[in-house]
Amino acid sequence: MALSRPNLFHLSLIVILLSGCGSAPKWITNPPLPPPLMAVGVAQETFDPSVMRKQAGHDARLGIARIIDLRVQEVIKDWARSRQDGAAGQHSLDTYFESVSRSILDMPLPNVIISQYYFDPKERRMYALAQLDLNLKLAEIKALTKRQTQQHLSFPSPSSIDNAFQDLDSALDQIGGKR
Questions:
Q1: Do residues 126 and 43 lie in contact, with contact meaning Cβ atoms separated by under 8 Å?
Q2: Which range of residues forms the domain containing residue 171?
Q3: What is the pLDDT along the chain (179 residues), one digit of tens a residue?
Q4: Is residue 63 within 8 Å of 40, Cβ to Cβ?
């Protein structure tokens, strides 16, 4: 039995309406815990749906960068405070923390994957779920923090530098889930 054009239209309309009646995906309000690292981005409705998708994806990637920055800042602050060898004064530490943070937020994240999009018809917003396996970025994060540490902090001896970097690497490994 073939459907006539009006019946096909009505059937299509019913399918569209029913698909919009469901609730939003759980990841919008409650992103899963890592691994992998995840963030949700949002964009307001625009005249162009592709622009909305790009904006939501960009916002989600920025969310990933902020999470990485917060985790690294927490690790390096704990690490710097635990150092008892007079590596730096408070002003040097503040400059160091700011420099690391700026570098991380500027770090490219090519491994971030936008795994899902969702358009909320009631709110007129596009959501994007971004994911990143943080272990893929860990080597780059370690190299970045090591460069920043060498530029901003001083150590009393070469052996204290080596020990400091071993401690920092171990602490950063915990960010990626390594123990």
A1: yes
A2: 24-175
A3: 444 444 444 444 343 333 445 577 777 777 665 557 889 999 998 889 899 999 999 999 999 888 888 888 888 777 777 765 455 566 677 787 788 888 877 877 778 889 999 999 999 999 999 998 777 778 888 888 888 777 777 766 667 777 777 777 777 777 666 54
A4: yes
Q: Tell me if 2 is assigned to some domain.
A: no
For the chain, what is the domain count?
A: 1
Note whether residue 46 is domain-resident. Answer: yes
Which alpha helices (H) appear in the chain, and where do they start and end?
Answer: 5-20, 26-29, 49-82, 90-106, 135-152, 158-175
CA 112 – CA 57 distance, rounded (Å):
10
User: What letter represents residue 167's amino acid?
Assistant: D
Return the CATH number at 155: 3.10.129
Q: Could you tell me the end-to-end alpha-carbon distance of the chain, in angstroms, rounded to an integer? A: 63
Tokens of 41: 């981005």
Whether residue 160 lies inside any domain: the answer is yes
pTM exceeds cut of 0.85: no
